[in-house]
Write a structure and sequence with these properties.
Strand order of the largest sheet of chain A: 5-4-8-9
Shape of chain B: globular
Strand content of chain A: 15-25%
Structural class of chain B: mainly alpha
Distance between the termini of chain A: 54 Å
CATH architecture of the largest domain in chain A: 3-Layer(aba) Sandwich
Strand content of chain B: under 5%
Protein name (chain B): Transport system permease protein
Number of helices of chain B: 14
CATH superfamily of the largest domain in chain A: Nitrogenase molybdenum iron protein domain
Oligomer: heterodimer
Largest interface: A-B, 28 and 24 residues
Membrane topology (chain B): Multi-pass membrane protein
CATH class of chain B: Mainly Alpha
GO molecular function (chain B): transmembrane transporter activity
Number of helices of chain A: 13
Order of helices and strands of chain A: EHHEEEHEEEHEHEHHEHEHEHHEHH
Radius of gyration of chain B: 20 Å
Family (chain B): Belongs to the binding-protein-dependent transport system permease family. FecCD subfamily.
Organism (chain B): Thioalkalivibrio sulfidiphilus (strain HL-EbGR7)
Helix content of chain A: 40-55%
Radius of gyration of chain A: 24 Å
Shape of chain A: elongated
CATH architecture of chain B: Orthogonal Bundle
Structural class of chain A: alpha/beta
CATH class of the largest domain in chain A: Alpha Beta
Number of strands of chain B: 0
Order of helices and strands of chain B: HHHHHHHHHHHHHH
CATH topology of chain B: ABC transporter involved in vitamin B12 uptake, BtuC
Distance between the termini of chain B: 25 Å
CATH superfamily of chain B: ABC transporter involved in vitamin B12 uptake, BtuC
CATH topology of the largest domain in chain A: Rossmann fold
Chain lengths: 317, 322
């Protein structure tokens, strides 16, 4: 699994006649004078286990997901991007890039016309047939599918490798892992808080424990009331939420707005979460997008769960 | 008969023009000269890839799909003697959709999705055939009712699959249901079936003309009605199944193109069938070109455009004909 970069030089050690040996040394010296990246072949396996071989670091990258665009800017490789998909709104520079369709429906012609030497695909978000088509047309494709926080750290490392930003990628990965560990040490062992995480309103949708947000909940010492559902993002009924009676309700929203999703729960005054005012909003871009900003979202969630713990003593007799 | 060669020649010329436009337009517009250079073999490599790998298969698939649907619609309208009949009225698209969506849900490869769609279409055809045929007393109304009810059953299954599918699969499924040519790669089967069916159906044109006036008249004039009707049904089913396999359920072409042609050319099936193939192909080729370019880089499903183009044209023709 470890990504490695190695030069594909012929370094066999045969005894050779002196003249030929001299010639070989000269050739080697000339080659060494070339920029190293011209020689370095990059091998990296993507999240689906496929190995990607690039002759040199990617210079023209098309990202097929807002989160991959964001990660590339994060590791300082935003200048390598030549195209992205709609809703790539962070950082601001991403909005300047040419758009090649939406993540769910790609404009293959526009992608080809940008002459990319690497396409970053989102395994569960892009149409697999269109991605396969790009690959068949000879464009190297890296498929990304982060399911755990560790996957995210590894994505930072791997994408820094293919864009020749190893130092930045390593630092960011270390920072992410350290941030996760700090939250874990601080919050994971605190008294568990049963919560409902609402990612969509109509239909009412939540996430299970296998989801990235599920791991964040775990980190903060929370217990997802629908954690053992089989679907990654199950649709649930309001009745099921009322029956589970969570102590906390956390909701994302559409865009950066909650659209009154949380207010709607106040109709059910019997809910513990409503009685204790434990209705919290976390901007979806901070936690539902698979980028290092998830640390900010995780921090928010942990704080909210702590508020909920504090309110226990207020109400208990 | 003198209208036949002239109108068909005009339509064929328009068809070639439509294909040319479809090959030239896209996210990277090509001039006529650049397009010519691609075909003579000395165009830019990027242009060659765009035209030969992406646009040509898609244009040919679009034309074939439109032609298949329009001919299927023309045959269905004769068979059911109902102006509202379209290729999907007997539930073929529903069966195909259930097959396709189930295979997408199972995460199967492209070829298998197409195969499942075709299998679903054939299953639905046989189901309707068997149920309508069952007790022996047969009429277009009985066939139509059976088809409509079977289609409703498929519709419920489609809703069920959509409801239980994970969010990530939904956009692909919805595009398939709305009719989408972005995955069409190999139009050979579509063209093969189209030519085959036209070769079988065209010589039947005179009999079809009689059948369109009613089965009693046809029988009185010496047409063996039952075998003819089943032949027409199976041909239309084959056409529809092939079209759905290529592009999902593209609406409207099969309903509107035969009617348009009847309003303009009269109701002689010997003209209508080949003319429907050409006009359907033209409509869908142009509609798909628009779907690719009108709000590019966002891509629209072609079914949206066929209706937007077809409705005003049809209403105009209908208004003028009174």
């Amino acid at each position: 699994m470890n990504p490695t970069q190695h030069a594909s030089l012929d370094t066999r050690q045969h005894p050779a006649p002196p003249l030929r040996r001299l010639a070989r040394v000269l050739v080697l010296l000339c080659l060494a004078a070339l920029p190293l990246q011209a020689l370095g072949e990059i091998r990296v396996s993507d999240d689906t286990g496929r190995e990607l071989v690039l002759a040199q670091p990617a210079q023209r990258v098309v990202s097929l997901s807002p989160h991959l665009t964001e990660i590339l800017f994060h590791i300082g490789a935003g200048d390598r991007l030549v195209g992205t998909v709609s809703f790539s709104d962070h950082p601001e520079a991403a909005a300047e890039l040419p758009v090649v369709g939406s993540a769910g429906q790609l404009d293959l012609e526009r992608i080809l016309s940008l002459r990319p030497d690497l396409v970053l695909a989102w395994q569960s978000g892009n149409p697999p047939r269109q991605v396969a088509r790009l690959e068949a047309l000879g464009i190297p494709v890296y498929r990304n599918e982060p399911r755990r926080l560790e996957d995210l750290a590894r994505t930072l490392e791997r994408l820094s490798l293919v864009t020749d930003r190893q130092a930045a990628g390593r630092d960011q990965a270390i920072a992410l892992r350290a941030g996760v560990e700090a939250l874990q040490t601080r919050y994971a062992e605190r008294p568990p808080v049963r919560l409902f995480y609402q990612i969509w309103d109509q239909p009412l949708m939540t996430i299970n424990d296998a989801h990235l947000i599920g791991e964040v909940i775990d980190l903060c010492g929370g217990v997802n009331v629908f954690g053992s559902e089989t679907a990654l993002a199950p649709r649930v009924s309001r009745e099921a939420v009322l029956a589970a009676n969570p102590e906390v309700i956390v909701a994302g929203g559409s865009g950066e707005d909650n659209h009154g999703w949380l207010e709607d729960w106040r109709r059910w005054q019997g809910l513990t979460a409503v009685q204790r005012e434990n209705l919290f909003f976390i901007p979806p871009s901070l936690i539902q997008r698979h980028t290092p900003r998830i640390l900010e979202g995780a921090e928010l969630l942990c704080q909210h769960l702590d508020e909920a713990r504090a309110r226990r003593s207020e109400v208990s007799p | 008969m003198s209208r036949l060669p002239l109108s068909l020649a005009l339509l064929a010329a328009a068809g070639l023009l439509a294909m040319g436009v479809s090959l030239a337009l896209g996210s990277v517009p090509l001039s006529a000269a650049e397009l010519w250079a691609v075909f003579t073999g000395d165009g830019e490599p990027l242009h060659r890839t765009l035209v030969m790998e992406l646009r040509l298969p898609r244009t040919l698939a679009a034309f074939a799909t439109g032609a298949l649907l329009a001919v299927a619609g023309a045959l269905m309208q004769v068979l059911l003697r109902n102006p509202l009949a379209d290729p999907y009225v007997l539930g073929i698209s529903g069966g195909a959709a259930v097959g396709a969506l189930l295979s997408m849900l199972a995460g199967l490869a492209t070829a298998l999705v197409s195969g499942a769609a075709f299998a679903g279409a054939l299953l639905s055809t046989l189901l309707v055939f068997g149920l309508a045929h069952g007790t022996g007393s047969w009429s277009p109304v009985r066939l139509l009712l059976t088809g409509v009810v079977v289609a409703a059953g498929w519709g419920a299954l489609i809703s069920f699959i959509l409801a239980v599918s994970p969010g990530a699969e939904l956009p692909g499924m919805l595009y398939w249901l709305m009719g989408d040519l972005s995955h069409a790669r190999n139009p050979v089967m579509g063209w093969g079936v189209l030519v085959l069916v036209l070769l079988i159906a065209w010589p039947l044109g005179r009999h079809l003309n009689v059948l369109a006036r009613g089965s009693l008249q046809a029988a009185a004039l010496g047409v063996s009605v039952r075998p003819l009707e089943w032949t027409v049904y199976l041909l239309a089913a084959l056409l529809t199944a092939t079209a759905v396999t290529l592009a999902g359920t593209v609406g409207f072409v099969g309903l509107i193109v035969p009617h348009m042609l009847r309003l303009v050319l009269g109701n002689d099936q010997r003209i209508i069938l080949p003319a429907a193939a050409l006009a359907g192909g033209i409509l869908l080729t142009l509609a798909d070109t628009l779907a690719r370019t009108v709000i590019a880089p966002q891509q629209l499903p072609v079914g949206v455009i066929t209706a937007m183009l077809g409705v005003p044209v049809f209403l105009y023709l209908l208004h003028r004909s009174r």
